[in-house]
Amino acid sequence: MQFSEEQIKQLAPDDASASAGRQLANPAKWVVKCHHETALWGDCQGSGKVPYSTIVDLTQLAFKCTCPSRKFPCKHGLGLLFLFARSPEVFNHATDLAPHVEEWMGKRNARQAAKSESEAKPVDEKARQKRTDQRTQKVNDGVAELTNWLKDLVRTGIMPVPQNAYGFTQKIMARMHDAQAPGLAARLKNMSDIKFYQEGWQRELLQQMAYAYMLTSAYRKLPDLPPLWQEDIKTQIGYALTKEEVAQQGTSVEDDWWVAAVQHEQQDKLKVEKTWLWGKNTGQFALLLQYSAPGQPLAHSFLPGSAIHAELVYYPSVAPLRVLVKTARPMETNIWPNGPDNLNATLEALSTRLANQPFHRQIPVIVHQIRLIWHEQRWWLQDQAGQSLPLHQSNAACLRMMAASLGFPFDAMVLWDNGHYAVVSYWLNQHFFTT
What we know:
The chain is an alpha+beta fold and 435 residues long. It is built from twelve helices and 16 strands. It folds into four domains: 115 residues, no CATH class; 113 residues, no CATH class; 88 residues, CATH 2.40.50; 92 residues, CATH 2.40.50. Helix content is 37%, strand content 28%. A hairpin with a 2-residue loop joins strand 11 and strand 12. The model has no long low-confidence stretch (mean pLDDT 90).
């Protein structure tokens, strides 16, 4: 599988690692350079006597290196991939894996198999039920307290909120964490993140308050709701299904998937990676959500703009989006998706999905043949019929899009995020770009 440098850059933990990796993409720095259909490996000569041994698993994009770096992937893993992208001809083609590469990949597969086996072991049902009952009581108390807090906020008025924009949710957020309702805590954090110095903050705050109240009301009526709605509401509250439960209750879909975008966020000490996938045959989107602690690699890494053949399992929902990866392998051919060629159809699709599941925070769509324009001191997307959509995106990102497209129409993945729109990735003339 051939990668572009832009795709490899998306795997870097930071810009410094990407820059250092590019500097290592020099054949003279590698005393060993080997390529197998499932892996790359090489020895990079550093400042010490012994070269660093680096391996890249191409089937799941995993990395191993003997260097002391705590970054994943390190600059040597990135450098080996950059070198392969630039000059694949300098690699020796191997029909068999080197012993140390085969051993490492075998151990990885064994660990994954052991992990799956341990997850399938029986649990103490009595103890689990006790923990479930205790958490249910905590959540019930937390939901009741949040409901009262929202009512008090409406009763006293929201105009004083900007004076204490950071602190007005701190106590109730802490209470939601104590109540084991992290989903509610996250919604409260979104309230405190509103830009209260901008015009229109009142509308955004009231909207988020309304969603929070609707969510607490739905939770109080949970036993009366259909099973899929119960799962959706519990997910919004902060309940998490185990992988085994997802495999049993979710829907499995096998398809050729296009990796539309990979986004990184930081939540406290955890790194969060969102991988957006689009199915060629189903036309469905899928979201792979992964968390990792500092220095810990992710279970799956996919290059934006590449294609994989995978079996994904959707979490149970009235509008499924989040998935687990059951099996995945890279594809040699690429996928270039098509979407509606007018923004009205895009907005109708968004409205339909929100009507089916109003608690979505983000919804992806594909738009076809749009162009970027500057109008009334802001950036817009405009379709062929002249319909426009305002972008909530940095000026620098929009200028990069304009430079890449030269003002010509392009296709894009647009992400709706709590009422705002942003281009996450775009492509034209079979060249893929990320923002």
